[in-house]
């Protein structure tokens, strides 16, 4: 960035093109379980019935109720699903860049290096640390308890990391806070896995749809909220300049407390 802002932008676009190209190698899974169906004819008949057009308001209401009934039946699903509504608040990269640059009186280029350090740690975490921890916990406690325990631990790391980011008086402590924060970055992956285990197999697609809806609502609310808190924090000055991250710490702490109250079968 010190040489030219176009250099990282062009490199970033090149990496995105490579990532999009990898989509061509993803295998088709539409009929992956077709051979496992005991009665293909019955399965196809059932699917054709489900595709009939809705003719009355009553049938539409029935289908809507049928689509959300699996959420109402289990309060744990609703509680965990609601966490995805604040997902955007944790994806505070742009605010973090401005916060580092403003509070510690440094350039955006240097601030980007700090954020990139966290991104590198998250990559290392997802490739090595989390798979190893998940494998160990699944063998010891089973898949459901493993996801729940790792979700609790991840929430604790993220909340502590955000709290330290908001209070760090210098860049050295800020870097340490980013390390702590990155250690919990698998939280929503574990929550998604835990949610999947709490619903029946034929509800998984609907569940992911609801996760997407909550995530989108979180983006609509979270972006202006973080910007407003950042502006308010700058007006207050001092410790309050980290107001967005103090809020993030409080929200994730509430998620962690909620997870501690959730019980599942072994």
TrEMBL record:
Localization: Membrane
Family annotation (InterPro entries): MFS_trans_sf
UniProt GO cellular component terms: membrane
Sequence intervals crossing the membrane: 6-26, 68-90, 110-137, 149-168, 174-195, 207-230, 242-262
Membrane topology: Multi-pass membrane protein
Keyword Membrane in annotation: yes
Coiled-coil parts of chain: none
Molecular functions per Gene Ontology: transmembrane transporter activity
Keywords assigned: Membrane, Transmembrane, Transmembrane helix
Keyword Transmembrane: yes
SUPFAM superfamilies: MFS general substrate transporter
Top-level taxon of origin: Eukaryota
Main location: membrane
Matching PANTHER family: FI18259P1-RELATED, ZGC:174356
UniProt protein name: Major facilitator superfamily (MFS) profile domain-containing protein
Source organism per UniProt: Heterodermia speciosa
Source organism phylogeny: Eukaryota, Fungi, Dikarya, Ascomycota, Pezizomycotina
């Amino acid at each position: 960035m010190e040489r030219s802002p176009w250099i990282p932008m062009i490199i970033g676009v090149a990496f995105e093109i490579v990532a999009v190209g990898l989509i061509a190698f993803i295998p088709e899974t539409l009929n992956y379980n077709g051979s496992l169906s005991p009665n293909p004819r019955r399965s196809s008949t059932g699917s054709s019935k489900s595709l009939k057009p809705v003719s009355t308001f009553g049938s539409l209401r029935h289908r809507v109720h049928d689509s959300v009934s699996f959420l109402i039946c289990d309060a744990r699903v609703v509680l965990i699903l609601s966490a995805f509504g604040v997902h955007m608040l944790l994806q505070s990269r742009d605010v973090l860049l401005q916060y580092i640059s403003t509070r510690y009186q440094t350039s955006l280029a240097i601030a980007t290096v700090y954020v990139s350090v966290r991104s590198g740690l998250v990559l290392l975490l997802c490739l090595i640390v989390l798979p190893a921890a998940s494998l160990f916990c699944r063998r010891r406690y089973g898949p459901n308890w493993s996801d729940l325990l790792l979700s609790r631990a991840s929430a604790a790391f993220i909340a502590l990391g955000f709290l330290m980011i908001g209070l760090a008086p210098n860049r050295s402590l800020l870097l340490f806070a980013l390390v702590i924060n990155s250690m919990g970055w698998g939280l929503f992956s574990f929550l998604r896995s835990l949610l999947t285990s709490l619903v029946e197999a034929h509800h998984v697609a609907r569940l992911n749809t609801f996760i997407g809806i909550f995530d989108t609502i979180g983006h609509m609310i979270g972006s202006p909220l973080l910007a407003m808190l950042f502006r308010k924090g700058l007006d207050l000055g001092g410790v309050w300049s980290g107001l967005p991250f103090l809020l993030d710490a409080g929200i994730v702490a509430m998620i962690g407390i909620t997870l501690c109250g959730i019980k599942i079968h072994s």
